[in-house]
Amino acid sequence: MIKFGFAIKTPRSENMDSVSLERFNKLQERVPSFKRCFQCGCCSATCSARQFTDFSIRRIHTSFRRGDYEGLDEALKKCMLCGKCTLVCPRGVNLRSLIINMRQILDEKE
Amino acid sequence: MKKVAIIGAGPAGIEAASILARNGVEVTLFEKSETPLKNLQDKAFLFPNFQNAQEIVDDLSGKLLTDGITSAFGIDIADVKWQGTEWKLVDSKEQTYVADAVLLATGYQVFDAHRKEELGYGIYKGVITSLDMEQMIKHGKILNANGDEPKRITFLQCVGSRDEKSGNHYCSKICCVTAVKQAIEVRKHLPKCEASVFYMDLRMWGQGFEEMYRTAQERYGVSFVRGRISEAAATFDGRVQLKSEDTLMGLPLKMTTDLLVLMVGMEASCGTKALGKSCDISGDYGFIRTVNPHLYDNETGKPGLFAAGTCKRPMSVSDSINDARSAANAIKDYLDTIRIEN
To answer: Which chain B residues are closer than 8 Å to A17 by Cβ?
Structure first.
């Protein structure tokens, strides 16, 4: 039989009705300063890892915010915890603590 | 005594009337509705200090009692004409009045959300405007279309503003902070209800506004999503499903919400458009055009014809009141330059 390649694809869209924000809420409790993030991107702009790899800390924490945790544990390994992001954040988000806590929460059982 | 006619009994009209009257001017305050301050009375609390709008209404209503103000409510001024030495005002019943100077304080009207059909206002019960939400907050009862307590309320910015399709390229200025204010009110009333704001830019231009935005995030857990909702649809259970692009993630986003609140912008009112046209001072989008936005922002270029408040452009209540004070000053200066015949 000839295969035409038809398939049902999972939509790429973020479905805010089916995601679980439990981990995100946990993160906000542990790092309250994260609530203040207004998505300026200073954290990833200054990041040394960002300059040479596709590691984007802004994208990672925004993904966390939307309840999409897929692949984040691997991605977060690229961070060297140098702390430049914490230094430049205009809203005083403790990014270093945020990163460590994201790693821990992703390790914990849901 | 010199006579000034003020058209429109909103915050700007009343403030200017009371200042002029206290300075010995005979003021007639025309208002087409039977009651003054119609728009302000729809408000619950005012940003950024959450002051009860009723306090402002009471204060301004008190000023209406100033000696020298004649309230002419229920009179719709259809035309104003310069007669060489004075202004003649004609109402919709062809009655005429005369004045040495005229202040237009004819205000705004909100954008009619039906015009953005894709957002479903007037089609789905769960889609409401910021005015409807303000009413719910005012009466302390926020309910979804089924009459139940909502679990998620979503605000959409720039409805009828910054929108080529509705012909309004301008920013209405007050909606950003109003959504933040209403989202905070929602979270205060219903701590279990999620509140999200879809925005393209958040324009926190006034003193205390940015702090409000920060408080909304930090203390009230309001979530902000960058992206414009492209369409809304109804679900079986009377809720609203919406589609947007999460422009920060570069991914499409779907969500169901109990209420979709459309932050409707400000447009020139019918009265503003009509009088602006007949006096040849109609500017962009039907708002009144002034001589110079920096130096002569209450003068219209016609002798003795002035404008104040939201008939010029979108403004907050406090800006309207301040603008009225500057208009009263400009009118006083003008009255000093003209001779009185009687």
So the answer is: 254-256
